[in-house]
Amino acid sequence: MIEIFIDNVNCKIKGSLSKDLCKELDLLMSYSHPGYMFMKGGKGGYGLGGKYGGWDGRIRLLTKSLVFPIGLLGMAKDFFKEKGVEVKVVDVRPELSYGSPIAFIDKTMDLRKYQQDVLEKAISAGSGIIKVATGGGKSLIIASIAARYNIPTVIYVIGIELLYQMKETFERAYNIECGIVGGGKCELGKDVTIMTIWSAAAAFNKKAKISDNDTTQDSGKHMKLLNKAGVRKAVEEAQLFIFDECQYAASETLQFIHRASTAAKHRFLLSGTPWRDTGDDILIEAVSGRRFCDISATYLIDKGYLVPPDIHFVNVPVMRNVGKKYHDVYKNYVVENDERNQLIVKAARKLVAAKKRVLILVVRVQHGKILRDLLEDDFSVKFLDGGKSSSERLGTIDNVKKGDIEILIASKIFDQGVDIPELDALILAGSGKSSGRALQRIGRVIRLHPQKKKAIVVEFFDNCKYLRDHSEARIKVYESEPGFNIKMPKSKTLHSYPQRKPIKWS
After folding, report:
1. Domain map of the chain by residue range?
2. pTM to 2 decimals?
3. Helix (H, G, I), strand (E, B) or coil at 482
């Protein structure tokens, strides 16, 4: 028999294990570094390195002293059960003093049945990953979990827009006064504090690194003038840890905050896309444990909680000699390709003429500026990127909701988290193969609104090196949601996909 001692952050195995079992568990609790083939060798973890040779390219979560993250406890128990090893779990975590559940006050925001089911599953599980498609009301689920536990809570978000949206949800639904840290403010809450991950990192004098996301959206510079010690204390003493948009949980920054949250007995990660395309999903599970619910976009469309999207693919002419490296290909074929940009402009004109409120998403800031210059003479256009102040971004969102802006162009800061139900048309001007980003972007326009029965999405099938594969990958992602209506152009380059009727713009 072995014993596994658990605290709020880690588990430690005590007892006699064979070297072969240690190696198997080490392999299970590791992942391959995506750039390993381009890197020099080094030392490995348990049973690797030294006399066993150089680094095998795997990142290990099991240490040589047999310590691993708390979220992988379920994985370890299943492993030992399969191997016939008896396990005793010794919980050394202190008991928590839970307050009485906070009553729900706004009946106009009453929990939907699936949200109530998610809440009950969350309380039963105690920790874990919650998948709810974009537009499914994650903010209300988060508020409900916090209200039920009623213990010191910190909720982490990746953007300033989410910061204020979350605060509004808490105050409307439960009359809970939340502190906010981010966007130039540092107001610590008595029981609940919502903070950007950038600000949390700044309080520990860490530079935030969130995958490839636009890290300029909240630099945390305001922390120099504010209460770093207070923020650190809030992080370290929070008994409930919640992170929205958890596809970024694998980031170096969130992993650090996870380890710093030494009092957090309950940890929940939420996202419409709680996975990554880089092979390191285990880092997400390591924070909170396994996924215990899955609410898809198709389910929400069928139940009438989201509007269905018509995804219209536009075929972009073939272009050769665009470069050898991906950066050059993207620059020449997407960013500076006048023919492709004119297709975007043409689509925007049709959508505005059909009285649609249009969002254009770009990957590179330069691309957004080019499209803005092409459109601003004829339309009310605004371009937002991560360099804009929080007040400017929030003001622009208000103007879009009021109808004062016809076309909003945005960089990756709008890929997730932003709630503008009035938007009913989306032009995906960028490219890429990320399944998570693809679904998150569609989620920008499928939220319910009284004047919206469906959403129109304009996509582009790019016919060149690298980008063709990316286009095909996104099609497969969309086809995984039966509630999405995909409309393909007639093209010999798309022979593997069924031909569909052309989309109507009205």
Report:
1. 2-91, 107-295, 307-494
2. 0.85
3. coil
CATH of domain 107-295: 3.40.50.300
* Both tokens assigned to 325: 């490296």
Q: How far apart are CA 208 and CA 219, in angstroms?
A: 8
pLDDT tens by residue, 359-381:
999 999 999 999 999 999 999 99
CB 192 within 8 A of CB 170: yes
DSSP 366: H
State the pairing for strand pair 455-461/309-315: parallel
For domain 307-494, the CATH class is alpha beta
How many other CB atoms are there within 10 angstroms of residue 106's CB atom?
Answer: 13
Cβ distance 60 to 44 under 8 Å? Answer: yes
Please give the structure tokens belonging to residue 387. 């360099």
What pLDDT shows up at residue 419? 75
The encoded tokens of residue 174 equal 């439960």
pLDDT in tens, 312-362: 999 999 888 888 899 999 999 999 999 999 999 999 999 999 999 999 999
Domain at 2-91, CATH from 3.90.470.20, 3.40.309.10, 3.30.200.20, 3.30.780.20 = 3.30.780.20
pLDDT tens digit sequence for 99-157: 999 988 876 778 999 999 999 999 999 999 999 998 899 999 999 999 999 999 999 99
- C-alpha span between 454 and 504 (Å, rounded): 12
Please state, in angstroms and rounded to a whole number, the distance separating the CA atoms of residues 32 and 59.
6
Note the residue count of the chain: 506
